[in-house]
Amino acid sequence: MSSWTGSSDTTRGTKIRLIMDNAPYHKAPEVHEWLKGKEHSIQLHFLSPYSPKLNAAEYVWRKTKRAITHDKLFSRLQDLRQALARRFNRFQGNPASLRSTIPHFA
């Protein structure tokens, strides 16, 4: 884990609130150990166990699957990776398309 102490000029006096899903590694002992002593500057918030409507990534994946992977066979893993990279590059290059994908988060 990172050795960040929470004492940089940009975060001094600001509490960082991390919204996390319930992946097992987010609740691992290493995370709790890393958080010790930083509770004054970092607070973890966990989504409900299954809450796709609260997780913007779910909307991005849904649109990506419909556009890129639905009913498509990729003969090589490399082809799938390239198709996904193109889609995510498109989101990165056109933030408006991403905002329309996750309107209530943007």
List keywords for this structure.
single chain; mainly alpha; two-stranded parallel sheet; 4 helices; 9% strand; 106 residues
Average of pLDDT: 84
Into which percentage range does the β-strand content fall? Answer: 5-15%
According to DSSP, the number of beta strands is 2
Look at the helices and sheets and give the structural class: mainly alpha
Which radius of gyration do the C-alpha atoms yield?
Answer: 18 Å
Specify the helix fraction band.
Answer: 40-55%
In whole angstroms, the N-to-C terminal distance is 30 Å
Largest sheet: 2 strands, parallel
Series of H and E elements = EHEHHH
Instruction: Record the strand order, biggest sheet.
Output: 1-2
Count up the helices.
4
Overall body shape: elongated
Q: What's the domain count? A: 2
Poorly predicted sequence stretches spanning 5 or more consecutive residues: none
Walk me through the structure.
This protein has 106 residues and is mainly alpha-helical. Helix 1 links the parallel strand 1 and strand 2 (42-46). Helix 2 crosses helix 3 (77-93) and helix 3 crosses helix 4. It has helices at residues 29-35, 56-69, 77-93, 95-101; strands spanning 16-20, 42-46. The chain contains four helices and two strands, in the order βαβααα. The protein has two domains: 1-50, no CATH class; 53-101, no CATH class. It has a two-stranded parallel ribbon with strand order 1-2. The mean pLDDT is 84. The chain is 42% helix and 9% strand.
Question: Which helices and strands, and how do they pair?
Answer:
Elements: E1 16-20, H1 29-35, E2 42-46, H2 56-69, H3 77-93, H4 95-101
Parallel strand pairs: 1-2
